[in-house]
Amino acid sequence: MLRLRSALRERFKFRLGIRGKLTFGFIILATVSVIYAFLESHEIALLAQNINTLLDDSYRSVVYCQSMELALSDMNRVGEFMKNNKRDEFSYEHNLLSRAKENFETNYELAEQNVRHLHEKEALDTLYQVYTVYFRALSERIEIYEKHQSPIGSVVEDIHPKLLQRLTRVRELNEKGLYQALAFLKDAPYRALRPGVIVIIVGLLFMLMFSYLVNHFFVVPIKQIAESIRRYLKFKTYHSVSLSADDEILELRRLIDRLVQEKNREQ
User: Which candidate, 167, 252, 190, places its Cα nearest to that of 218?
Assistant: First the structure.
């Protein structure tokens, strides 16, 4: 039974020679290098995507705010016109108001779909609430103006500045997002290096371990065998070196043992 177990153990024993061990070590080093390259490229691509998204979204929202500000300026022109002109000259301003309304509401919807920053949704909601009050008051003034066909007094002067303040708040949030994107871009090289540094550290640790194993399993045994042969040639005393690895070095030691034994028999 014991012989059977020993035979089976010898038959299915995994034997990794010197070439296999070195190849295995270099494969791991190559794998670490590939992982490093992959992580670096992935991190750089991810950073570029995040930065581009943040820049694009913030810039678009700033443009939407500028378009809404132009629309409000046109609406204010209509109000100023009613203070100083008669009804028969109002046709152009009436068309201007329609275009301004469409321009404001279109860009507001685009800005609402492009919300990316904290408190931006609340700022947009407040903006639209004030805009609704403003446009309703302006429309009522226009109805009065068209009925009287003569200049009328100030038009919602107290609401227009508040509306601009709300719009400025939305624009400032997105301008802040642009500054954050630039700051993020400034730190991007350091962020991209972090996973690479980790992989490099792991690679260095493996290289140290690999160097230790090469020294332990190859260099030291070969030196011990060489020293044993040197003593045999000088003092005619031979001590077989004890080896733990089952590879070509062990096979070399066995052959040397056999050669020494045969040499001793001849003497």
Answer: 252
- Model pTM score: 0.55
- Long-range CB pairs of 155-164 (<8 Å, 24+ gap) are 155/79, 155/80, 155/82, 155/83, 156/79, 159/130, 159/133, 159/134, 160/72, 160/76, 160/79, 160/134, 162/130, 163/72, 163/127, 163/130, 163/131, 163/134, 164/69, 164/72
Domains of the chain: 19-208 (1.20.120)
- Six-digit token pair at 47? 């950073």
Joined tokens for residue 8: 């089976």
User: Which two structure tokens, joined as six digits, stand for 249?
Assistant: 């070095």
Q: What is the pLDDT along the chain (267 residues), one digit of tens a residue?
A: 445 444 434 443 445 566 666 777 778 777 777 777 777 677 667 766 766 777 777 788 889 999 999 999 988 888 777 777 665 566 777 788 889 999 999 999 999 998 888 888 999 999 999 999 888 888 888 887 777 766 565 556 778 888 889 999 998 888 887 777 777 666 666 666 676 677 778 778 877 887 887 787 778 888 888 888 888 788 887 788 787 777 777 787 888 888 878 777 776
Q: Which amino acid appears at position 57 of this protein?
A: D
